[in-house]
Each structure stands twice: as structure tokens, then as C-alpha cells.
Design brief:
Layout (H helix, E strand, L loop, with lengths): L10 E5 L4 E5 L3 H7 L2 H12 L13 E4 L14 E6 L6 E6 L3 H7 L4 E5 L6 E6 L2 E6 L8 H12 L5 E4 L2 H4 L7 E3 L3 E3 L4 H7 L2 E6 L11 H14 L6 H5 L5 H7 L21 H6 L2 E5 L9 E4 L15 H6 L9 H14 L3 H16 L18 H13 L3 H5 L3 H8 L9 E2 L2 E2 L10 H8 L12 H4 L25 H20 L14 H12 L5 H21 L28 H15 L10 H6 L7 H5 L4
Parallel strand pairs: 1-6, 7-12
Antiparallel strand pairs: 1-2, 3-4, 3-6, 4-5, 7-8, 9-10, 9-12, 10-11, 13-14, 15-16
Length: about 625
């Protein structure tokens, strides 16, 4: 461990083509500037990946990165990032995950792994303290997730091993294939499982027997833990009791529950059957959790008659909506079965549900025939058809081969107006949150470097609570809020101010469901935790700068790959009025453009090029990342 800090100062570099493995030690200055997670990973990606590389070629780089506080004991502080060029968007790809693999990697003595090249045959990496080796994964290629994980653990002879893997979908290069650790904890977005598959990298198995991280300032760390024990009461926490689907009924009531491929925002006949409360009363058998987290928001469900096993966890909100209301399906047991199928094949549940909804609407409009669908009737509410499409997508069989390309490419191939039904931004399918009723999401979806992403900032209902006496996020000093349906320069400013929090969380590995404003850990206490673990006298301002660096680097990456400000837009459907409780609400194009211009201004982005301005790069000590500097090799 480097000088007593919460990190080792060691990153593994694995060249899969040659089979060589070495250790790099970036130095304390790099760790303090970028902190870890997506920030540190993007630093390496932008410096080392040549522009224009095919995301599924050996030249792509795949990075897994923990943070300077990873493997600590405070709830919610053990997330880590996966980063590569995305095969779904052709731009920046990033996805975070919780679970247990990140802390296990840290316990083995490493902060991250950088993979380059392509292995000549299916391979997995085995990491345990000073032993790091590539092993033959041929026996596990083609197996479903549970069988592959069990097989690797059996081969290595220890059930304590944590396995991070791609699945059958990644092996078949499905552009929205995911990565999972311990069967339940997903890097869901950006198609990074396909990058793993393209490299013939089946898995990374870790077992760390070294000393777990000890904070530099033990007394301050103890004070933070003592505060958390008083501040948090899981028995009163809806996130613990009902998980991320705790708000389904409220979303339906407010008219913002995505239904029938975002045609509607309410699901009258089915919303009550797919709530977190319904799950807790019926199929829930355990509240699962991540490493050292009291919140325990994960769901583990069981449905004997369908063979649904708790080892695959249970559906989160995004899965319930994307594979439920979005398809007009409200059989919770069948949604749990779909969730297990997604886990068995290791698919992004959001993009999978969205691409199936796209196919259903194309079928409804006569753009896909029953014959083209392999005899399936792709009608709303058809559980059998939806689940068969999941299988076909994972194996690239029949129409599944087309849908495995994602909605953007599928729509382009189908043509005849199919693009109107492809709900994506930059190629990534929309998450299950409605920008016509939570209008900061219009900015979030349009500007996110990974394509449509709901995890850029708190959502609009939180903005209504900002006032001079607020205690929700007092560190931000925001004294004026805005209603959810407002889209204005003021909303853009609020989004930028709160986005800094979410970006900071992704650099230090903080879970959004545990930190403020969603849950108990305040930013002040998080800063104290970082100080205690690292021994650095950091400030909130410094952590915000680290998060904003990550935002700027990913923006530069996308502009270098050919994106322009014109790509910061939304699907046409969102500019049209919605029905239900918010009847007539839409993202007004003029308001959207004005809000986008305001966001560019406060973020320090040039409105013509879309790039961070030289002044912004100077402010963040990122002069090296200016496109002309990178082109000249100054990085």
C-alpha cells in the first residue's frame, strides 16, 4: 500500500496478445489529481487509445479501476468503474458496479487493471496477491454465467474467489452486452461486455489475502462511522425496504413511468403489480448488498415454478420498467424470470428491454413481419415473445442478430421510418426515466458522454426542495429550486451544480443510493472519509474538480471520435406531447436549445466545437488534454 494511503499505487497492465503482464506505478500526484474510478481510467484511455479505433478490435483498451478509498468500511464507498471505447455508441464507454470484486482486487494488492490486445483463445486472468497469470478459459466459453463462475472457482480450488465475467452475449459481440461480478452486480451500460468478448477475455478472478485497507487517520474514520450509525436507520429507509423500484407507484401517478416504448407515462392496468412493495410481499427472499454496505438495496427473489433462483439476485427498477411497463408486461414473476435470463446471458437490462420495445412497435407498424420475427407475435404484453427475443439476441439468432446491434443500427437497417421508434441518444437506449416530466433529464441524456444516462445528477423532484433553509445538500449553497417540468437556463444551472456531485461520486467510488441527496451520507462526511482513508487534507472543492476533470476528458474523447454538438439531442418522440397526468407535456425544442446553450456556458464548453475551452482546461490542470496537444504527442 502506497505510503499508508488507501491505494497501493500499482496498476496491472495485461497485454492479451503477447500474454505479458507488468505492474505500473503512476505515482501519488496522478492518484490525487484523478482519484480513481472513471476519472483515472479516462486519463489512461484518452492518452493511450488512438482515435478511430474499432471498439471490437484488439486495439481497444479495457480498464477496470477502483478508487483511492475503495475497500473501506463506510457504506456505499466501494464502487469501481469499467471503461473502454463503446461498441454501442462508438464513443466513450463507462459503467460502474458495486458488489465484491473491486474490494477483492484491492485486497490482492492492485488498484486497477488495463487490458490491451486480444488473446489467441478464450482466456481468463487469475489475480491473487503476487500471483497474476493468464489461464485457458476454453472450458468456460459458451457457458451461462453461474456455470462459468462455478467452474472457474472449482478449477482454482477456492469458493471465496470473486469472478468478474462477460457472458454468452459478450462472446457473441452483442453491442449492449454487460459485465457482471458474482452474478448480481453489473457494469450494465455501454456494451463493455462485448469489448471483453472481442478480446477473448472471459473473466477476471480475484482472491486477495493481504491486509484490508486501514485508514491513515483512524480516529477521524471512527468518528465518521459513529455518525453514520446514528444518522442512518435502515428500518425507515425505503431503499432498504423496497429497493430501487420503491417509486414505481409514484412515477405512474405523476405520469412519468415509461410505458409502451415511451408512448405513455402511465401504466393503469399493471403498475401496482410491479412495485418494490409488491416484490417485498411476494417473491423477495433476501435483501442483498455490496461489500460493507448497510443499505442493502439489492433484491434477491425466488419463483419456484419458473426456476428463478436467488443466486441471480432480483430485478432493479430499470429492469422492471424496461422489461415490464415498457412492454406492457406486469407479471412480476415473469419479469423476475426475464431478469434471470438477462443475468444468465449477461445483458444490459435497459438496452435489451428498449430494443425489444422498439421491435414490438415496428411489428405494430408493419415494419417487422411475423415471418421476420421467426414466427413470434411481437405484441404488447407478450411475455413469451419478449423472453424468446432475449435468448435470440444473446445468441444472435434470427431477428436477434439485428436487434443485437442496438436500436440505432437496427432502425437504420430497417428504414421506412423505423428511426422514429428508436429511443436512443448517440446510440445508447434511453433509461427508464421520462424527460417530459423530469426535464433536467433532457440535458442529462443529450450531453452524457456515454449516450442517454440517468445517473448524471439527481433528478428534478430533488430540485423542488432547494430553498434558503434546506438541509438536503447544504454544501452546494443552492437557495432557489425549480419545478420538475421547467426547462430553462435556471434548470441547466441546477443540473450542472448537482452533476458535479454525481461526477465526484463516480471518481471516488461512492454509490448514489447511499450518498446525498438520495440517502444518508452527506458530502461533508464523505470528504471526512476521504481524508481519513488517504491522509490527504482534501476539500469538497478538490473532489468536485476531480469529477469535473473526468467529465471534460470524456467529452474530449467523444469530440475526437467525431461527435459534434449536433449529437447532443434527443429522440423525436420526446419533443412530442405525452398523454396521461402530464397530458401535452413535451420537451419544447426552443427551450431545449436555450437550456443546452446555458449548460455549455456554465460547463465551459465552446458552443461551436463542443469542446471544453482552453480556459476550462487550464482551470482543471488539463492543458495536456487539448486536442492539439494530444495530436502532437504531448500527453
Amino acid at each position: 500500500m502506497s505510503k499508508g494511503h488507501g491505494y497501493h499505487g500499482k496498476i496491472l497492465r495485461v497485454d492479451l496478445t503477447s500474454g505479458t503482464i507488468r505492474v505500473e506505478e503512476p505515482g501519488d500526484a496522478i492518484y490525487r489529481r484523478y482519484m480513481g474510478g472513471g476519472g483515472l481510467a479516462t486519463y489512461f484511455l484518452l492518452r493511450e487509445l488512438a482515435p478511430g479505433v474499432d471498439p471490437l478490435s484488439p486495439e481497444n483498451i479495457l480498464i477496470f479501476m477502483t478508487s483511492v478509498i475503495g475497500s473501506g468500511q463506510l457504506s456505499g464507498t466501494n464502487r469501481y468503474s469499467a471503461v473502454a471505447k463503446s461498441p454501442l455508441t462508438g464513443g466513450y464507454g463507462e459503467a460502474e458496479a458495486g458488489g465484491y470484486w473491486g474490494p477483492e482486487l484491492k485486497a490482492a494488492g492492485y488498484d486497477g487493471i488495463i487490458f490491451t490486445g486480444r488473446a489467441p483463445k478464450p482466456t481468463y486472468l487469475w489475480v491473487t496477491n503476487d500471483t497474476v497469470e493468464l489461464r485457458d478459459a476454453t472450458a468456460f466459453w459458451g457457458l451461462e454465467a453461474a456455470e462459468a463462475a462455478d467452474g472457474i472457482k472449482a478449477e482454482l480450488g477456492d469458493k471465496r474467489i470473486r469472478v468478474l465475467q462477460t457472458g454468452i452475449a459478450g462472446e457473441h459481440l452483442v453491442r449492449f452486452a454487460a459485465i457482471v461480478n458474482e452474478l448480481k452486480h453489473f457494469h450494465g451500460r455501454s456494451g463493455l461486455g462485448a469489448v471483453m468478448g472481442s478480446k477473448n477475455l472471459k473473466a477476471v478472478a480475484c482472491l486477495g489475502t493481504g491486509a484490508r485497507m486501514k485508514p491513515v487517520d483512524a480516529e477521524l474514520s471512527k468518528q465518521v462511522f459513529s455518525w453514520f450509525r446514528v444518522a442512518y436507520n435502515k428500518e425507515k429507509d425505503p431503499m432498504h425496504q423496497y429497493g430501487s423500484s420503491r417509486g414505481v407507484a409514484a412515477l405512474h401517478k405523476d405520469g412519468i413511468l415509461p410505458t409502451e416504448n415511451f408512448k405513455h407515462g402511465h401504466f393503469d392496468e399493471g403498475f401496482a403489480d410491479i412495485t418494490g412493495q409488491k416484490m417485498a410481499d411476494t417473491i423477495l427472499v433476501k435483501r442483498g448488498t455490496c461489500y460493507s454496505c448497510t443499505i442493502a438495496c439489492k433484491r434477491e427473489v425466488k419463483v419456484d415454478e419458473l426456476g428463478v433462483d436467488p443466486k441471480y439476485g432480483g430485478p432493479e427498477y430499470e429492469t422492471i420498467s424496461a422489461n415490464g411497463s415498457l412492454l406492457r408486461i406486469h407479471d412480476l414473476k415473469q419479469i423476475a424470470n426475464s431478469n434471470q435470463m438477462l443475468g444468465r446471458y449477461v445483458l444490459d437490462s435497459i438496452s435489451t428491454g428498449a430494443v425489444i420495445a422498439f421491435a414490438f412497435e415496428c411489428y405494430e407498424k408493419g415494419l417487422i413481419t411475423k415471418e421476420q420475427a421467426g414466427g413470434l407475435e411481437l405484441t404488447w404484453g407478450n411475455v413469451h415473445a419478449a423472453q424468446e427475443l432475449i435468448r435470440m439476441i444473446a445468441h444472435r439468432e434470427g431477428i436477434g442478430d439485428l436487434l443485437a446491434e442496438g436500436t440505432m443500427r437496427a432502425a437504420q437497417k430497417i428504414g421506412r421510418g423505423a428511426e422514429k421508434f428508436a429511443m436512443h441518444v448517440k446510440g445508447q437506449e434511453l433509461p427508464m426515466h421520462e424527460p417530459r416530466g423530469k426535464k433536467s433529464l433532457a440535458i442529462a441524456y443529450a450531453t452524457s458522454p456515454t449516450g442517454a444516462d440517468h445517473m448524471e445528477a439527481p433528478h428534478d423532484p430533488f430540485y423542488t426542495a432547494f430553498h434558503p433553509n434546506t438541509t438536503m445538500m447544504p454544501e452546494l449553497g443552492i437557495t432557489e429550486g425549480a419545478p420538475p417540468t421547467e426547462l430553462s437556463a435556471r434548470k441547466a444551472k441546477l443540473f450542472f451544480q448537482t452533476q458535479r456531485v454525481w461526477s465526484m461520486y463516480n471518481t471516488v467510488g461512492m454509490c448514489d443510493f447511499v450518498g446525498a441527496p438520495i440517502n444518508a451520507v452527506t458530502m461533508t462526511k464523505l470528504v471526512e472519509h476521504v481524508r481519513a482513508v488517504t491522509g490527504w487534507d482534501v476539500s469538497l472543492y478538490e473532489l468536485f474538480r476531480a469529477g469535473e476533470r473526468a467529465d471534460c476528458l470524456s467529452r474530449i474523447f467523444n469530440m475526437r471520435e467525431g461527435f459534434t454538438p449536433a449529437d447532443d439531442t434527443l429522440p423525436p418522440r420526446l419533443f412530442e406531447g405525452i398523454d396521461g397526468p402530464l397530458k401535452g407535456e413535451r420537451v419544447d425544442p426552443s427551450q431545449f436549445e436555450q437550456a443546452l446553450a446555458a449548460y455549455y456556458a456554465v460547463a465551459g464548453w465552446d458552443p461551436k466545437t463542443g469542446l471544453p475551452t482552453p480556459a476550462k482546461l487550464m482551470e482543471l490542470d488539463l492543458e495536456w488534454a487539448a486536442p492539439e496537444q494530444i495530436a502532437a504527442g504531448a500527453a
